[in-house]
Amino acid sequence: MNVAIKGSPVTIPKNLGTTGAHSSIHTHEDPQVIHLEFSGRVLRDDLRLKRFFELWGKQLSSTCVLDQCNGPDGKLSMTVNGQANSEFDRYVMRDKDQIEIRFD
Ligand SMILES: [Zn+2]
């Protein structure tokens, strides 16, 4: 995943979600790759992009990302595998998705 605010890339932590209780959604050494890994039953809500941002401790909604919200300063947009996507936090991720979130 790539997140950019006004053209500046935001650093996503390595190994997010792999310490303590192992989360279905996590990153390893390359933080731009979100890995989905689970055994048995997994709740759809656990695979939503919102869950990743919760682990990260950051905000994502249909109108805000991190500390930026739609308004005179810019607007949030998202693409998944190159296609515009308006689900934002509700997007249910699939392994190896290329997710780009921008605020410009
Ligand atoms: Zn993994």
Task: Give a quick precis of the structure.
The chain has about 100 residues and is mainly beta.
What string, H for helix and E for strand, traces the elements in order?
A: EEEEHEEEEE
Let me know the average pLDDT.
92
With strands numbered from the N-terminus, the spatial order across the biggest sheet is: 2-1-9-7-8
Major sheet size, sense and barrel closure? 5 strands, mixed
Q: In angstroms, what is the radius of gyration?
A: 13 Å
The total tally of domains equals 1
- Cα shape: globular
As a percent range, the share of helical residues equals under 10%
* Ligand list: zinc ion
Could you name the key traits of this structure?
104 residues, mainly beta, 5-stranded mixed beta sheet, two-stranded antiparallel ribbon, 9 strands, globular, binds zinc ion
Describe the structure.
This protein has about 100 residues and is mainly beta. The chain has one domain. It is built from 1 helix and 9 strands; from the N terminus they run ββββαβββββ. The protein has one helix spanning about 50-55, and strands at about 1-5, 10, 25, 35, 65, 70, 75-80, 85, 100-104. The strands form 3 sheets. The chain has a 5-stranded mixed beta sheet with strand order 2-1-9-7-8, with no helix packed on it. The longest helix has 8 residues, at about 50-55. It is globular. The mean pLDDT is about 90. Zinc ion binds near residues 26 and 35.
